[in-house]
Amino acid sequence: MRFLIDAQLPRRLARELVECGHDAVHALDLPRGNRTPDDEIAALAAREQRVVVTKDGDFVASFLLFRKPPKLLLISTGNIPNDHLLQLFRSNLAALEAAMGAHDFVELGHSAITIRK
Question: Which of 52, 68, 63 is nearest to 100 (CA)?
Fold first, then answer.
């Protein structure tokens, strides 16, 4: 699976996904880094068939109104330590892969994975 990790999430998440066999880039790795506008991130995700992983509600609105980006994984844990976020991802990765393979909008919270429409 191909991921694009948004700016407010740790770069370590991209590295973790790569270690698990995925293709993942972080917004910091883009030419404009963390200053890359959301519409450019959405366009890149569409072009490269990447799932945008974000905490940003602006992406939710864009997805619901325009289906941009085409695939969205919303992290709705609030502020948690990066180590806890990475552990949450690791322990739910297989379920997230299955959910993102079958659906376009998935939400990962502290205790559940939710399929959104």
Answer: 52
Going from the N-terminus, what domains does the chain have, and what CATH number goes with each? 2-116 (3.40.50)
Tell me the C-alpha distance between 88 and 35, whole Å: 27
Per residue in 40-81, pLDDT (tens digit) is 999 999 999 999 999 999 999 999 999 999 999 999 999 999
Q: Partners of 17 in the beta sheet?
A: none
- Burial label for 15, CB within 10 Å (0-12, 13-18, 19+), is middle
Q: At 70, phi and psi to the nearest 5?
A: -65, -30
Residue range 9-41, pLDDT digits in tens? 999 999 999 999 999 999 999 999 999 999 999
pTM beyond cutoff 0.85: yes
Backbone φ and ψ of 114, nearest 5°: -120, 130
